[in-house]
Amino acid sequence: MSNFSQLQQALTFANSGQLNQALSILKKLKKHQDVRIQASQLIIKILITLKNFVQAKTELSQLMFFLPNDYGILNTYTTICLQTNDIANICSQHINFITNNPSHALACFNCAYYLKIIGKFEKSLNFYEKALLLNITAPHEVYLNMATICSDHLRDESKAEIYLKQAIALKFDYAPAFYNLANLYEQQGDRDSAYSYFVKSYEADPLYSNVLARLADINRIISGDDVLIALMQAQLADNLLNNEQRCNLHYGLGKSFDDCKMYTQAFEHYNKANYIDQQTLPIYDPEVISDKIDTIISSYESNNDLVLDTCDKNDPIFICGMFRSGSTLLEQILAAHNEVTAGGEIDFFQRFINNQQMPFPRIVETLSKVEYAEIARDYQRAIQKAFPNAKFITDKRPDNLLYLGLIKKIFPRAKIIFTERNVLDNCLSVYFLRLGATMNYATDLKNCIHYYQQQQRLIAYWQSKFGNDIFTFNYDRYVHSPELSTRELLTFLGLAWDENCLAFNQVKNSVKTASVWQVREPLYQTSSGRWKNYQQQLAMLNLPIKLV
Questions:
Q1: What domain count does the chain have?
Q2: pTM for this one?
Q3: pLDDT at position 240, please?
């Protein structure tokens, strides 16, 4: 039987579901040059069907060697690598492909995209630049992606602003660029410019993302007949709206009615927003979260003897705890000190964990001292590049709480500050915001409370291990005794008293959290005990805690 006849026989077996018989024939045919490519391609399809991704990647690597100019093969390879979270391999294969095909604009664009995911931000920008030089389709989208890297990761807001304006120059009605410029100005505390560019985004595309809800965030709504409320209600009446748009509008209306002290209407819209949002998110399973906390604790208990002995004397200050528990306020207080620079929500450890092919916390148990040292160097290089003149840096990523075992191995002298506030205030604040798939507890108040309680359990464990290096910043205590709380905080950090810390709202920096406007205002006490505005609605939910 000829090689082509055997190839046809293998294809017949494959189509009838007899995959192992097909593979047996194809592996032999791969040795013959005249059918090698076709045999490899069919082997790859079968391996993907069998979900044998490791072998499929090996076969694809061999096929790319024989067909180095076929981007379709690399696309398939990329799809396989995404199944196993092997993003680094995607990047290296794209770079190899571009070496052989330097004028392939799409490959440069995709390479830049995946380099960003693994934190190679400067390299990512370089490949986006190459894509632009190769006249890639829709260059305005490339500038938008470059702006995001500069703003969110390299802390170069001026360069981000330039890129966004270049995008607008290419496409004058590009709503996402106007929207991102508005975000940029909002983060810098420039309310007028932020408002202006949100309006321009709305004019370019009235249904783009959640622009009306963001306008509601910027403005303090004082009346239920405000024009912004009317605009959002009118949009909701449009039957062509998708759930994403409806969800954002309900959040915006919730915030607006809360401003007006129309709490029944506010809670109604927040409920609708969370119901819609919940349909798109992974289901929150309390047992899974409880087991995760148990696993983190047991993992550290069995692997707590490896600690680096070489550390920078000015280790970062880690601020963590529950989202919406006062961490942005705390960072602004410290940023007002003449020796402290606000690092914001640095995603280094989250990105490190997410880029591993082994799940957390098991991956931590496999790391050697050399690998821990490499993580420490990578972190310090990233911090020094973003903040070259900083003496002390705050790393205000609330969910670093999960990774403190890893962090304290790398930076054993690091100071940790837990932020906390009244559980009902905290959980309502979470419920009133759209926080995304990684915080799927946020769409149900009972789940919020459960997650809060599990975090408290983990906090208690870390306190038992690192008590001398931990300070608890209580938001409610602070708003009633700001100077006393601040003095205790600075004493814990070994910092001299600085009167500027009491004027945190005057700090000129970029704030990239939902508390951006709250921390630009003088201290107020209205958020402490805010849950009482919703006491009637909360009483109807049969929550697992007392309303006190």
A1: 1
A2: 0.86
A3: 87
